[in-house]
């Protein structure tokens, strides 16, 4: 009897678990994620080149599928870029697989250096696919899209991330005219780990409740706008 294979997105969840990229505890991450019981460190994918390459294939296949729909969910684009630093290695891997040219924001090297600039060949007015590893509130995405438009004349409409934490970013990005596509959601990862017996019910419950409470709070704030 042939061995059952996981769907591509759940394969990625399993790989992330095997890499130790999914941790449980008490984490404060960035500007918006406070006391989260779960942390996903997607940068560890760089330690497994085979997994990184396959992840890029999944991303590219997802994009092509959504572009081939009768009403395309992702518009054509001429360049790809990643949000420093978590999204940059994913954008590079995506570029190599898809053959879409990469541009990237070069950060200043010190407090006395020049402002950030865009590295790579591009034309003003081109559309760029924005790639990141994980999205929570969407603030970095919004700021990066605005920077690309103001400083390089590039248009950002579609955003591709590996993991959406389901904490309200999708609705917030839509408000700014940005369309979010994710390969996995954090809830999908947690459900997979729970069903496979890799985590106990306590961590699963705490994590799901945290996500749901954050999403409800974000929805309430958006409703007040």
Can you offer a commentary on this structure?
The protein has a single domain, classed as Rossmann fold. It is built from seven helices and eight strands. Helix 1 packs across helix 6 and helix 6 runs antiparallel to helix 7. A four-stranded parallel beta sheet has the order 3-6-7-8, sandwiched between helices. A two-stranded antiparallel sheet has the order 1-2. The protein has 225 residues and is an alpha/beta fold.
Rg for CA atoms: 18 Å
* Number of DSSP-assigned strands: 8
Q: Would you tell me the structural class of the helices and strands?
A: alpha/beta
Tell me about the largest β-sheet: 4 strands, parallel
Question: What gross morphology would you assign?
Answer: globular
Task: Please give the alpha-carbon distance between the first and last residues.
Answer: 56 Å
């Amino acid at each position: 009897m042939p061995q059952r294979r996981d769907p591509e997105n759940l394969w990625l969840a399993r790989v992330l678990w095997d890499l130790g990229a999914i941790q449980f505890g008490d984490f404060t991450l960035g500007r918006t994620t406070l006391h989260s019981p779960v942390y996903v460190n997607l940068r560890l994918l760089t330690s497994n080149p085979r997994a990184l390459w396959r992840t890029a294939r999944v991303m590219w296949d997802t994009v092509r599928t959504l572009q081939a729909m009768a009403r395309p969910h992702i518009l054509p684009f001429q360049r790809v870029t990643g949000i420093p630093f978590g999204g940059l290695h994913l954008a590079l891997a995506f570029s190599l697989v898809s053959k879409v040219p990469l541009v990237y924001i070069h950060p200043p090297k010190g407090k006395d250096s020049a402002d950030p600039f865009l590295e790579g060949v591009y034309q003003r007015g081109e559309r760029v696919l924005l790639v990141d590893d994980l999205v929570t509130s969407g603030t970095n995405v919004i700021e990066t899209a605005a920077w690309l438009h103001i400083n390089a004349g590039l248009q950002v409409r579609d955003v591709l991330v590996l993991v959406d934490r389901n904490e309200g970013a999708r609705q917030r990005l839509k408000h700014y005219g940005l369309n979010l596509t994710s390969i996995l959601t954090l809830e999908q990862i947690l459900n997979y780990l729970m069903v496979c017996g890799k985590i106990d019910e306590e961590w699963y419950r705490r994590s799901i409740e945290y996500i749901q409470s954050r999403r409800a709070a974000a929805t309430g704030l958006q409703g007040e706008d």
